[in-house]
Backbone:
């Protein structure tokens, strides 16, 4: 308007600019909150899948047998019978699933990082010893069963296979979900197949401490169950697969657990489960879905940094002696301790921190 007061126009312009700035700041704030909630949801969906998906799908399929949709259950179980041995041959890896955006939200929640220290030759096969187990091995899953931390770019030509309990692959639907990420059963048949009949460039990730190690998982503790775990070394020797020590700093920090003392009824129950079923039930908690001040199944957002160490060259011995196994096991333990000591101060641990090998 030609007759408008210039000061009034200036004031109006400033008000509009201020309003736009407030709008953008609110939008950014909301976007930040949405990002955080997406991260929480992405982590929770995996935790629930890990804990209940197999049992829930089994129950639903059994119920379906009793409904008009019984044919769906029959078709799936028929497919399951024909497909029963697929997990033992490495499964059905899906690059599409491994590259889902949900895994990037999963990574950023903690955050999770994969650190490469040495190149891996595509002409060799490898067994990665992953330590520690933690409650769920979240770092192992994110780094090796998804592309969220770009494992295929950091180790070009290497196909990672995260090994887990064979019982998981008897669960309908859960088995398909696991196989799509390149997860396989941790048994001799599967490992023998991948290291002898699947070419070279295979890397099998074994969480060596297993259920026993998970029972001692707690924040502030760096301990591994390894002293009497030598089966993975024997497999490496039989196939000439190089051993790669791998330590995940922060894996024990994301959940709090009730630790039962040796000799207590709680520890007795856990050991019985471990002996006869293959896993040990843990009483643990993280944070709530909507607040970090409440208890729930969502892990605490603590950084997890997985450091992949230097491969130990292993000769191929079809019938390794106990002396051979002990020798390379000792070399592996020494390499793991050195890896821990070299990187511990970079990830918040004091120089005096010692890796406890049990």
Residues:
């Amino acid at each position: 308007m030609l007759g408008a007061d210039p000061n009034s126009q200036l004031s109006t312009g400033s008000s509009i600019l201020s309003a736009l700035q407030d709008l953008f700041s609110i939008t950014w704030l909301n976007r930040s909150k949405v990002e955080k909630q997406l991260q929480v949801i992405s982590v929770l969906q995996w935790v629930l899948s890990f804990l209940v998906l197999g049992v829930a799908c089994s129950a639903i399929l059994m119920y379906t047998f009793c409904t008009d949709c019984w044919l769906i259950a029959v078709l799936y179980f028929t497919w399951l019978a024909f497909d029963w041995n697929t997990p033992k041959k490495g499964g059905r890896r899906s690059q599409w699933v491994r590259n889902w955006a949900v895994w990037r939200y999963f990574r950023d929640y903690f955050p999770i990082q994969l650190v490469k220290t040495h190149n891996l030759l595509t002409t060799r096969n490898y067994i990665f010893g992953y330590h520690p187990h933690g409650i769920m091995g979240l770092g192992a899953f994110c780094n090796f069963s998804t592309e969220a931390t770009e494992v295929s770019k950091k180790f070009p030509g290497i196909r990672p296979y995260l090994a887990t309990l064979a019982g998981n692959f008897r669960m309908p639907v859960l088995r398909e979900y696991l196989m799509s990420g390149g997860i396989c059963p941790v048994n001799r048949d599967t490992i023998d197949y991948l290291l002898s009949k699947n070419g070279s460039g295979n890397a099998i990730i074994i969480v060596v401490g297993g259920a026993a190690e998970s029972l001692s998982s707690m924040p502030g503790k760096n301990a591994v169950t390894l002293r009497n775990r030598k089966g993975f070394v024997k497999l490496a020797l039989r196939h000439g697969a190089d051993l790669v020590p791998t330590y995940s700093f922060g894996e024990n920090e994301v959940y709090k657990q009730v630790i039962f003392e040796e000799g207590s009824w709680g520890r007795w129950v856990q050991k019985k489960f471990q002996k006869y079923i293959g896993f040990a039930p843990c009483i643990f908690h993280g944070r709530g879905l909507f607040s970090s001040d409440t208890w729930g199944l969502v892990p605490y957002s603590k950084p997890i940094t997985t450091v992949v160490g230097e491969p130990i060259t292993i000769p191929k011995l079809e019938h390794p002696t106990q002396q051979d196994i002990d020798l390379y096991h000792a070399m592996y333990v020494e390499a793991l301790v050195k890896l821990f000591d070299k990187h511990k101060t970079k990830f918040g641990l004091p120089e005096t921190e010692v890796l406890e090998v049990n």
